[in-house]
Amino acid sequence: AALGADAIITVTAAGSTYYDRYPDLSAANWINVHAYEDGVHVGPGKELGQPSGFDYFVKCAGLWKTKYPASKIVMGIPAFGLRYNSLDDNGNNLNWTSYNYIPYRDILAAVPTAASQEYAAISKGVYFNGVPLVTQKAAWLKQNGFHGAYIWMGEYDVTGEQSLTANIFNSLK
Fold this sequence. Notes:
The protein is an alpha/beta fold.
């Protein structure tokens, strides 16, 4: 009320972890759902893989849709990749410090054709959201009546035909 009738209030919340522990967020105009980094592919001995895939995205959207209308939910899409730097003897993630994150723009700088993929052979492997995956996610959001999507982090994106933001925008319009 102190902000006035035209104020916009948003909340960013975890995708699937503790989604049921949040207080009532219905006063927010929309809820930004962190629908990436599934938590399955990091940590000692964890298998390498896509932490921000389509199935996890849909799972997060479905969980939040049980609490709020889809028209109030904005789903997050990463503009970065999970990069593995050291592997154990089984070819899995070595430990808690053997991985890091790499901006999408840096993935494309290293592998110019990577925009059409979800994996790049950088270091011990990088999993990320390329143009086909973000387009699939955006089309699903539009088909299912969600409010929209956001990119984390916008400055990690590129411009032009390989832009994640532009491809999401074109899919949602």
